[in-house]
Specification:
Oligomer: heterodimer
Distance between the termini of chain B: 21 Å
CATH class of the largest domain in chain A: Alpha Beta
CATH architecture of the largest domain in chain A: 3-Layer(aba) Sandwich
Number of helices of chain A: 23
Strand content of chain A: 15-25%
Number of strands of chain B: 9
Helix content of chain A: 25-40%
Structural class of chain B: alpha+beta
CATH architecture of the largest domain in chain B: 2-Layer Sandwich
Order of helices and strands of chain B: EHEEHEEHEEHEE
Radius of gyration of chain A: 24 Å
Shape of chain A: globular
Strand content of chain B: 35-45%
Largest sheet of chain A: 6 strands, parallel
Number of strands of chain A: 20
Number of helices of chain B: 4
CATH class of the largest domain in chain B: Alpha Beta
CATH superfamily of the largest domain in chain B: ACT domain
Shape of chain B: elongated
Distance between the termini of chain A: 69 Å
CATH topology of the largest domain in chain A: Rossmann fold
CATH topology of the largest domain in chain B: Alpha-Beta Plaits
Chain lengths: ~575, ~180
């Protein structure tokens, strides 16, 4: 069957199981958009900005574990994708970006809307392609999906010149196995590694699991549960590891790191064995490396060999798919209890509990922590929450315990403000039956709020919770602690968010006191024909406690004072 | 300390750029990098010399393996090897010192490949130390120009860096990963 390159693109997407793509048309990608009508099985979501398309594809990928697809034109369309691609790269999220390129004969001439996007994205993609022959197109797309989803997943970009989209060729789908001589992701641990790991685990008296994004990405949630129940080892979570084990399970302690629970960080510092499962010892979870977990042996399981010994020297590194490695380990574990170690952790936990703001009366004020905790309660702790980046993100992580994988979607590695709203639309469209909340700050929301129109056009029933404190709150917090309260460029004017919602035809509520939260959340949950917006006007000068200052020792946290009369 | 890595890569456009970009992004310093075809048309071979610690070399090896087009990496430093660099050196000569230069060439087994009225071009092959010492001796006579190819390297005897076209299975030694430290 003779097909044009543009048609081959859609044929290949169909065969990859794609039924939803996010994009924005333009000159160099027009042949592909023209061919779209022949493929009604694939729904195209028109975004308001190409960055939105990449975040939506990312949100789609993180909500489903499948590959998300974003499409844009050449030049500015492609460069607008850069932030979204980098976000996916840093969090190992599988997306495929397809960009139009100027016709082959114009490449290198600075033609209208020409940019070398494969050069630009070289360091922020797992791999990328510039297609130079229509004969290569089908195989390239297949390869791109394979690379995006296997091994350590990540973004792949395919740049396709306009003449290649228009060129005709005999289309035969290449369904033979993919041959990539330099690409063989690891799978299982070796016998020697398993034996060494078991020795270390059985000898440990104060073991602790550090569970990261790899648990979610490799689908190892139930394997981790089986391991934990048999080994009776407590679990600390990274931000992206949330959902990998149900929080509320007696062995799950909570989040580690810069804004993690103090008792979790204390446990890391005191442990005699750390089992790092699918996490990468980022500086936000280790603090000062020189004083990090000094008493412990360390086992690191990761799919990416370059992560082993990158930041923290370990005693045993295992390169493999976490799900496979856990299935190798668990049957050979000796069941064991660690009562003294658990009692010690509970003692530290008790102190943290006393300092926790959710256990105190708000004194008539509206604290973001209370908003998130109430939201958790009124959604039964069952929503998929997509956050932006900043204070609200950390409060979400602290006060919205997650039970299931893929239910917290947040930009961890890159910390991309503006991620929340578009990613939530991608997540909702990917999984319409899930209750999806976008929790965003007044700052990040205004970076990508143009996507409100996309949500309305697509009838995406996302509930948007704006935590409005009138500041770029996290930056303000650093200015308060480390820059002698010089609040330069952090106070922020915002429009009337409810009127803004009204202009888009989105119903909304404004909440200024804790007793209004329930009704607003219920109104949002009852509205299923499109987005709903709630503006929470919260305390302006509130702080995310506890906090490890950047580069400080993990155990030296700034804690919320025990009995502050005024909690601000 | 200097580390020499032999790297087999797919012979495709942009692969050199990917490797160099990786070194820049991870702040690794390249001392020398050469690339050329092998006896197998679809595979090219790079020789990369870096100045750094053993740990740096390990990190580089693992990061090279992250590139889809990199097939195999061989850390040659601690293995019996042949390392060669080639230099062309243009030296200013006249009737008083031409024979001195020719004697030096004899001692170093270098060749004069061009003779002009006021200069000669010398070709010398050898490891880096040999070329450095040769250049040091020529310096007082007057070096006008010098160009070097950068290092190429190969293991001796039984030590082969061959590719059957695939990266070895990871977990064995196919990705720079050493499990038990």
């Amino acid at each position: 069957m003779k097909l044009k390159g543009a048609e081959i693109i859609w044929e290949c997407l169909l065969r990859e199981g794609v039924n939803l793509v996010f994009g924005y048309p333009g000159g160099a990608i027009l042949p592909t958009y023209d061919a779209m009508t022949k493929y009604p099985q694939i729904h195209h979501v028109l975004t308001r900005h190409e960055q939105g398309a990449t975040h939506m594809a990312d949100g789609y990928a993180r909500a489903t574990g499948k590959v998300g697809v974003a499409i844009a034109t050449s030049g500015p369309g492609a460069t607008n994708m850069v932030t979204g691609i980098a976000t996916a790269m840093l969090d190992s999220s599988p997306i495929v970006c397809i960009t139009g390129q100027v016709a082959s004969s114009y490449i290198g001439t600075d033609a209208f809307q020409e940019i070398d996007i494969s050069g630009v994205t070289l360091p922020i993609t797992k791999h990328n392609y510039l297609v130079t022959d229509v004969e290569d197109l089908a195989y390239t797309i297949r390869e791109a999906f394979h690379i995006a989803r296997t091994g350590r997943p990540g973004p792949v970009l395919i740049d396709i010149p306009k003449d290649i989209q228009n060129a005709e060729t005999e289309f035969v789908y290449p369904d033979e196995p993919i041959v990539l001589p330099g690409y063989r992701p690891a799978s299982a641990a070796t016998e020697a590694e398993i034996e060494r790991a078991l020795d270390l685990i059985h000898a440990a008296r104060k073991p602790l699991i550090l569970a990261g994004h790899g648990v979610v990405m490799s689908g190892a949630a139930s394997e981790l549960m089986a391991f934990v129940e048999k080994a009776q080892i407590p679990v600390a979570l990274t931000l992206l590891g949330k959902g990998g084990m149900p929080e509320g399970h007696p062995m799950v302690l909570g989040m580690m790191g810069m804004h993690g629970e103090a008792y979790v960080n204390q446990a890391i510092q005191e442990a005699d064995l750390l089992l790092a499962f699918g996490m990468r010892f980022d500086d936000r979870v280790t603090g000062n490396l020189a004083t990090y977990a000094p008493h412990s042996r360390k086992i690191h399981v990761d799919i990416d060999p370059s992560e082993i010994n990158k930041n923290v020297r370990v005693d045993l590194g295992i390169v493999g798919d976490l799900r496979t490695v856990l299935s190798q380990l668990t049957p050979r574990l000796r069941p064991k209890q660690h009562p003294e170690w658990m009692a010690q952790i509970r003692e530290w936990q008790d102190d943290s509990f006393k300092r926790d703001i959710v256990n105190r009366d708000a004194g008539g004020k509206l604290y973001a922590a209370h908003v998130i905790r109430d939201l958790w309660e009124y959604t039964g702790g069952n929503a998929t929450v997509v956050t932006d980046v900043g204070q609200h993100q950390m409060w979400e992580a602290q006060y919205y315990p997650h039970k299931r994988p893929h239910t917290l979607i947040t930009s961890g590695g890159l910390g991309t403000m503006g991620f929340g709203l578009p990613a939530s639309i991608g997540a909702k469209l990917a999984r319409p039956d899930e209750e999806v909340w976008a929790i965003v700050g007044d700052g990040g929301f205004q970076m990508t709020l143009a996507e409100l129109a996309t949500a309305v056009q697509e009838k995406a029933a996302v509930n948007i919770a704006i935590i409005n404190n009138g500041y770029l709150g996290m930056v303000r917090q650093w200015q308060e602690f480390f820059y002698e309260e010089r609040y330069n460029a952090t106070p922020m004017f915002s429009p009337d968010f409810c009127k803004l919602a009204e202009a888009y035809g989105i119903p909304s509520r404004r909440v200024t006191s804790r007793d209004q939260i329930k009704a607003a959340v219920e109104a949002a949950r009852a509205h299923n024909s499109g987005p709903f917006l709630i503006e929470f006007v919260v305390e302006k000068h509130d702080i995310v406690y506890p906090m490890v200052p950047a580069g400080a020792d993990l155990h030296n946290m700034i804690r919320r004072p025990l009995a502050a009369p005024d909690m601000v | 300390m200097k580390h020499t890595l032999s790297v087999l890569v797919e012979n495709k456009p942009g692969v050199l750029n990917r490797v160099v970009s990786l070194f820049r992004r991870r702040s690794f310093n390249i001392d020398s990098l050469t690339v050329g075809r092998t006896h197998t048309p679809e595979i090219s071979r790079m020789t990369i010399v870096i100045d750094g610690t053993e740990q740096d070399a390990d990190r580089i090896e693992k990061n090279l393996y992250k590139l889809v087009n990199v097939i195999q990496v061989d850390h040659l430093t601690d293995k019996p090897n042949v390392i060669r660099d080639l230099a062309l050196i243009k030296v200013a000569v006249d009737n008083t010192n031409r024979s001195e230069v020719m004697q030096l060439c004899d001692i170093f087994r270098a060749h004069i490949v061009d003779v002009g009225p006021q200069s000669v071009v010398i070709e010398i092959t050898g490891d880096e130390d040999k070329i450095e010492s040769f250049a040091d001796l020529l310096r007082p006579i007057g070096i006008l120009e010098m160009v070097r190819t950068g290092v190429v390297a190969m293991g001796r005897g039984e030590h082969l860096l061959t590719s059957n076209g695939y990266r070895p299975q990871p977990g064995a030694n196919g990705n720079g990963h050493k499990s038990v430290i």
